[in-house]
Design a protein that fits this description.
Elements: H1 3-30, H2 32-39, H3 41-49, E1 56-59, H4 65-81, H5 83-94, H6 100-136, E2 145-148, H7 149-166, H8 169-178, H9 184-189, H10 191-205, H11 211-242
Parallel strand pairs: 1-2
Length: about 260
């Protein structure tokens, strides 16, 4: 394919992904009340635990804030529900550059990508009340916490998407390995840096100050990294075994070919 054809293919897949997200957003719009109740549960729990008359609530200060909240929540729901489609389109853009055997492996990891992404989002949803509770604990006794709706929504979106995208790490690494961009030996040599970066990523993406939430994000990322290293090592060994011996002939020597 020429460069123009590649760009057309990319545009087509982006349009399909955007259409899927739009359909998911329409569904999210219709179930907005249920979604908002789930998102605001941590705030409701904090309100119930306060006994000194403090105010803990989500505030909609502007006239259009309620509408903006519903649009953003619906769009976020659309991204989650359309994950199978846009992940499939991402892989579909990469797969044409792979061999027949590598395409089967790519399809397998494409199927694994959707559950991993959704699992990461679900883990974040389970940890969100703890994260909110830790942040609320810094409010002085007797103080109220009236949170702007857009600020709270940004916190929730960042928290959930960070977990969901981090769980896609092995799919990205294996995809780069299949594309002959990232050899397994490079991944093995860089495991120490990968562990450090996992904890840095966990510290940056989780807005709490306790080490547990950071570890809950960094731990699975590290495990998934080493799983990707193992799979890439197997792929590289099979690839090397399938290559003819004359490809490894040192420079300056005549090969069997």
């Amino acid at each position: 394919m020429s460069l123009v054809e590649h760009l057309r293919e990319l545009r087509r897949r982006l349009v399909i992904s955007a259409a899927a997200i739009l359909v998911g957003s329409v569904v999210g719009w219709n179930i907005y009340d249920w979604l908002y109740a789930r998102i605001s549960e941590p705030i409701d729990e904090q309100r119930l635990t306060r006994r000194g008359g403090e105010v803990v609530t989500i505030n909609f200060a502007g006239l259009t804030d309620g509408f903006a909240m519903q649009v953003n929540v619906s769009l976020f729901a659309g991204i989650i529900m359309a994950a199978p489609v846009w992940i499939l389109q991402l892989w579909g853009f990469i797969v044409p550059g792979l061999t027949k055997k590598e395409k089967w492996t790519a399809r397998f990891f494409m199927m694994a990508a959707v559950p991993l992404f959704l699992a990461g989002c679900f883990v974040a949803y389970l940890l969100m009340p703890k994260a909110v509770g830790v942040l609320m604990s810094f409010v002085p006794a007797g103080g109220s916490n009236i949170i702007a709706g857009d600020v709270y929504l940004q916190f929730v979106l960042k928290f959930i998407l960070a977990f969901g995208l981090s769980f896609l790490l092995p799919v990205v690494l294996v995809g780069l390995n299949l594309a002959h961009v990232l050899p397994a030996r490079t991944m093995r040599r860089g495991w120490r840096l990968a562990v450090i970066l996992a904890f840095v990523f966990g510290a940056v993406m989780t807005p709490t100050t306790d080490p547990w939430t950071m570890t809950f994000l960094a731990g699975p990322v590290i495990v998934l990294y080493f799983a990707a290293v193992g799979i890439a090592s197997i792929t590289d060994r099979r690839r090397a075994a399938a290559e003819p011996d004359w490809l490894n002939t040192p420079d300056g020597q005549a090969s069997a070919l």
